[in-house]
């Protein structure tokens, strides 16, 4: 479903990510783990066309390189960005509308309110007045409004209570059963490895390890470096 090859990301003369190869199948959740600044967000931005990159990004067999972001969203990629970036002066429903690209708007909203009951209770509340966890759910729901084939989540658990972290993990499981591909970038390696099927470890812009998440979670070197054990 998602295939990256030879992907490099640059900011001016700085090369943040170099020659990445990554795949994620339909209905598979894949984690990108690594320290602050390793390049996780840069990869997600490059997939959506929001960073200067070279190499190939394919979704469902279609080459996205060179296409503008909106065309990539139409092709089935969506991002819930790091820091959430909900529109604070807009209501929950208005935020959902910002992620809408076509189809049956009322039905899509209803799907989201079904998936996130908290958002239903707050559908007319201004997003800026909601809790961090609620804003995170809204950011994910807004991304889902485009009915993506590949959902990218950038640091969805940052600063949130364990109960919300569990909800996000359960949500990833549910989306997988619907056939969605999930690419999760997380500094919280423990959560990321528990929530996904496979993972890639990123160090200063390079992939240094990859494999089934359960296997990486049991690897002594990964445990020492990323799980604080
Ligand atoms: P974090 O979780 O902190 O976002 P990350 O793994 O997602 O970390 P990136 O944000 O992708 O890492 O950053 C990778 C590298 O690229 C870092 O060295 C960072 O300083 C650099 N970088 C990121 N964005 C920019 C930018 N807009 N201009 C210049 N350098 C940047």
From TrEMBL:
Keyword annotations: Amino-acid transport, ATP-binding, Nucleotide-binding, Transport
Similarity comment text for this entry: Belongs to the ABC transporter superfamily.
Pfam families: ABC_tran
Domain ABC transporter: 2-229
Species of provenance: Chelatococcus asaccharovorans
GO biological process terms, semicolon-separated: L-amino acid transport
Superkingdom: Bacteria
Gene Ontology MF terms: ATP binding; ATP hydrolysis activity; branched-chain amino acid transmembrane transporter activity
Stretches assigned to coiled coil: none
PANTHER family attached to this UniProt entry: HIGH-AFFINITY BRANCHED-CHAIN AMINO ACID TRANSPORT ATP-BINDING PROTEIN LIVF
Protein name: Branched-chain amino acid transport system ATP-binding protein
Entry-linked Gene3D superfamilies: P-loop containing nucleotide triphosphate hydrolases
């Amino acid at each position: 479903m998602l295939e990256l090859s030879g992907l490099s990301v640059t900011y001016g003369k700085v090369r943040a990510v170099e020659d990445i190869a990554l795949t994620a199948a339909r209905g598979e959740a894949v984690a990108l783990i690594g320290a602050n600044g390793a390049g996780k967000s840069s990869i997600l931005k490059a997939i959506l066309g929001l960073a200067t990159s070279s190499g190939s990004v394919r979704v469902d067999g279609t080459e996205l390189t060179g296409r503008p972001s909106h065309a990539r969203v139409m092709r089935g990629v969506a991002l819930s960005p790091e820091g959430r970036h909900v529109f604070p002066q807009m209501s929950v429903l208005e935020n959902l509308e910002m992620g809408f690209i076509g189809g049956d708007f009322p039905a899509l909203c209803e799907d989201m309110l079904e998936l996130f009951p908290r958002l239903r209770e707050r559908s007319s509340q201004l997003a800026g007045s909601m809790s961090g966890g609620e804003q995170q759910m809204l950011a994910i729901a807004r991304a889902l409004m485009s009915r993506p084939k590949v959902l990218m989540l950038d640091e969805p658990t940052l600063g949130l209570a364990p109960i919300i972290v569990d909800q996000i993990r359960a949500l990833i499981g549910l989306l997988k059963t619907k056939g969605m591909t999930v690419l999760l970038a997380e500094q919280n390696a423990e959560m990321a490895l528990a929530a996904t099927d496979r993972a890639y470890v990123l160090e200063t812009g390079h992939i240094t390890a990859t494999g089934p998440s359960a296997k990486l979670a049991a690897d002594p070197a990964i445990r020492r470096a990323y799980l604080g054990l």
